[in-house]
Amino acid sequence: MKKVLRFKVVMIVLTIVIIIITLFLSAYIHILRKNRINRPPKIGFAMSTLKEERWFFDRKYLIDTAKKKGFEVEWTNANENDMTQYQQVKYLLAKGIDLVIIVPSSYDSAKNAIELANQKNIPVICYDRIALDANIDAYVGFDNKKIGEIMAKYLLKQSPSGNYVFILGHPRDYNTYQIREGYRKIITSYLNSGKINILLEDYCYKWKKEYAYEYVAKLLQAGKQINAILAQNDSLAEGAISALAEKRLAGKIPVVGQDAELNACRRIVNGYQSMTVYKPIKKLSELTIEISEKLLKKEKLPFTKNFINNGYKMVPAYLIEPIAITNRNIKLIIEEGYHSYEEVFGK
């Protein structure tokens, strides 16, 4: 009888304890949910690199625009390392972010990091670079094919015939292939007719300008005549121009790049670089935050006629038009506040 009584008492106590714990947990979860609802939306900005000058502008404009909307931003920089980016996205998710904006370190490996967000039903935007075979909600970037077209058209006006050098970016950056597709579309008829010849068309691992320098230096050492150089960004253009300068050819051979880096703008003013493709990063950041706001509010995304098949699905793409900058319209960079007059002209 005593054993039965003790058993009943123990069961009653356990039941009370379980009820108390359950009530406590329910209250705690309610508080967490309430705090999550009341706090500002938090965006995780998983960057690939800060190596090039332009990425500092991307970070500044995106964070400033987000703050104006009342959003918080946690950002990371993977230094172009896939595993680092995976761990950083994991970290951002652990910090309770509500949306991921990712600049993929590589188009094929970023899907692993994106899957972490998918598992938590966190929306994902690919910024400037797209990830393949990944479930992303939107892609916001520039019209990379048009960038390639702009570059090729400009060079053909400067050098309608002769030996061309094409210095490509990172082989695991999908932008590299889109830019190539763009310039190939323009030069194909010139190649077929024999008007131009490709001396070199090769990649620069992780966009390192040392490769660009080496490619051009070796061609010149071999006695090859170069009539035009298309470099897929201004850093690579700098590497190529450095090699030309050693042979006193800087300014004598047209060289184009992209990003409108300050040093590239200065080279244009001084006649060493012919053209750069300006990509209005402020507009890109503003558009990205606009798309972010729609996703956070679970609203319908703005209309777009552009979609990219990334191997997983047709991704709505929001593309901003690039602009060719030469010594004739270099002041546009100043008017848009990207660089100051004093920075560009040194006065």
UniProtKB/TrEMBL annotation:
Any GO CC annotation of this UniProt entry: outer membrane-bounded periplasmic space
Record InterPro entries: Bact_Solute-Bind_Prot2, Peripla_BP_I, SBP_2_dom
Lineage: superkingdom: Bacteria
Keyword Transmembrane: yes
Signal peptide (residue range): none
Boundaries of every Periplasmic binding protein domain copy: 43-300
Location of the protein in the cell: Cell envelope
Residue intervals passing through the bilayer: 9-31
Gene Ontology MF annotations: carbohydrate binding
UniProt KW Signal keyword: yes
Keywords: Membrane, Signal, Transmembrane, Transmembrane helix
Protein name: Sugar ABC transporter substrate-binding protein
Organism field: Caldicellulosiruptor owensensis
